Known about the structure:
Elements: H1 2-33, H2 35-38, E1 42-45, E2 48-52, H3 92-108, E3 131-133, H4 134-148, H5 152-162, E4 163-164, E5 175-177, H6 178-191
Antiparallel strand pairs: 1-2, 3-5, 4-5
Amino acid sequence: MNTIRSSIVVLILLAIITGVAYPLLVTGLANVLFPWQAQGSLIQQEERVIGSTLIGQNYQSDRYFFGRPSATADYPYNALASSGSNLAISNPLLNEDFAQRSQQLRMQNPDAGQAIPVDLLTASASGLDPQISVSAALYQAPRIAKNRQIPLKAVESLIAAQTEKPLLAFMGEPVVNVLQLNVALDEFKQQANLPTY
């Protein structure tokens, strides 16, 4: 009987410590030490949340940079259905997807003077990647400059300013967060007193 009672007491104590006290402590510390990250790294514009820097956005307008293709279920960048396409390289559907995306990108970016960067053709494993390579951003820069009627050099400067470099060179390539880049693009338009779209 004492063994059962002791087991129940230990079970209750461990449930309180690991199920209540520890999560509350970690959540409290995170909110004190890293408040922006603990709240989801949310970006606000005009006092309204427009997205998170951790999840890609499905931009449709030619006046904005596009992210990587998303293969999540129901709709692109569905955070509730994070997944890749799971198509093998030998699958003809994957080649059809590449051909279709390639054709669409060439039509949208007729002034791009380089080959299409691979990350604009391939969906990520999660389908939620918020970043693209610097070359993918530069590939889209002429379209942005033309549609926003701003100098190409200004767009390239915005890309350079928004480029995130890895802590150490061997830890990856520099990337650009698409949401932050598009927010900077809107802010540049406002600072330059250019017409709104």
